[in-house]
Amino acid sequence: MIPKYQYDVHLPVNLEPGKTYPTIFTLHGKGSNETNMFGLVAPLAEDFIIIGIRGNLPLGAGYQYYDLKSLGNPIREMFDEAVNALESFIHYATDKYPIDPVKRYLLGFSQGAILSMTLAFVMGERLKGIVALNGYIPDFVKSEYPIRSMKNVAGFISHGEYDSVFPVRIGHETAAYMNDQMNRLFFKLYPTDHGVSEENQLDFMNWLMKDAEINTIKHQ
């Protein structure tokens, strides 16, 4: 298979032959790229494989995975195609790299968060968890997508209290909806606009380490 997306792979430096690793797939926001996302998770690169997936559609100096009719209203055909292609990419990468298939995480911001949550619906418990930063779930996903059980999928959802792109009301609605689908959901608001604060970053990194059962005490 030739993957649809360009991507960066960061393997743990001390890679052990025959061992599989928990893996974070990052999905960037509209007009951004995979390099920006790596900056959010770089401190985890010692313990996780990190794969940054670049959107295939150029947008300004960056990229996107799908286009919009209007804010909050994805072009359905492009959105569906992106979801299918991303699921295929996750399977492709799992076959190619030493990825532990029961410890696969998606971490997305904005458009990437929207896709991460949608892929949790599509893939269900084939994912270990998702981190969704400042996103939402399109109405057509809730009403028309076949939803797999997410009861054992872990979720970290955060939103900016002063988000000027997706108002905080959307964050509350998204968390309430996902809480009905998941047994293990963490939701927190941060005093930010449409972005990721240092506190938010530290919280989701600690959450990922704990969920993947990685000892956070190093070099003792």
TrEMBL record:
Domain Phospholipase/carboxylesterase/thioesterase: from-to ranges: 22-199
GO molecular function: hydrolase activity
UniProt keyword annotation of Hydrolase present: yes
Keywords (A to Z) from UniProt: Hydrolase
Name of one Pfam family that matches: Abhydrolase_2
The keyword Hydrolase belongs to this UniProt entry's keyword annotation: yes
Domain of life: Bacteria
Family to which this protein belongs: Belongs to the AB hydrolase superfamily. AB hydrolase 2 family.
Protein name: Phospholipase/carboxylesterase
